[in-house]
Amino acid sequence: MFIPKGFRPTNAVDFVVHIHGWWNNIDTALKCYLLPQQLAESGKNAILVVPEGPRNAPDSFGGKLEDPGGFKKFIENVADYLFRTGKTTTRNVGNVILSGHSGAYHAISYALMQGGVPEKIREVYLFDALYGQTKKFAHWIDHSQGKMVVIYTDSGGTKDETESLMGDLRACKIPYFASNETSISPRDLSKYRLVFLHTDLGHDMVVHYRLQFRDYLRASCLADR
Residue 4 falls within a domain, yes or no? Predict the structure, then answer.
């Protein structure tokens, strides 16, 4: 968990929940992908939470986060802990951004489909992570007004699935914005609800190498500090 310097207590606490992928854990995700630094540089008034998934394992299972209502219970428990320990002034959960790298797609898809707080999850970031469960993501796109940013590589194994989802969106006449990552502007990130970015980077570089996590947060619905 990371609370940026200058965090301002409000009537509801906004959260950025990032789920790590294969062969990772909380410590490596925070350190290698510069998540705290990127949230701090974004200037957004939110708390970063990184739940522990399968530790240092080739496993995408999200545990209790995949249970019906599991994500609701998780985020409410976090909010309650922060309130009880005096780090916030309310138990109320505000906006939630759900972010994940690589194998995180599995837990994220279940959180969207049956996590219990669909109205709270305002944005989703998939960092080379669309390996499957695509029908769940498509359902969320179709049944919410939430924003989704998908960045994908040529070699990470997500290209076909990502392009298939874009094809389905075109067939359903659901508009989206697609671009090469290096051509995207802050205005584009702010303007469009569905953003698909093809990158020339490797799989383990898509979260931090160009400070992508920071830039997506800057363009998000979260309030500034």
Answer: no
For residue 29, tell me if it sits in a domain: yes
**What is the domain range of residue 153?**
13-218
* Residues 172-196, mean pLDDT to the nearest whole number: 96
Amino acid code (one letter) for 27:
D
Q: Please give the Cα distance from 148 to 140 (Å, whole number).
A: 10
CA–CA separation, 71 and 9 (whole Å)? 23
Total domain count, the chain: 1
142-180 tens-digit pLDDT = 999 999 999 999 999 999 999 999 999 999 999 999 999
The one-letter amino acid code at 152 reads Y
- Beta strands across the sheet bearing 177-180: 47-49, 13-19, 93-101, 121-127, 147-152, 194-198, 177-180
- Does the structure show a pLDDT above 80 at 48? yes
Which pLDDT value is given to residue 54?
76
What pLDDT band is residue 23 in, cutting at 50, 70 and 90?
confident
For residue 3, tell me if it sits in a domain: no
DSSP for 178-208?
EEEGGG--HHHHHH-SEEEEE-SS-GGGTTT
Are the C-beta atoms of 136 and 98 separated by less than 8 Å?
Answer: no
Q: What CATH number did the domain enclosing 161 receive?
A: 3.40.50.1820
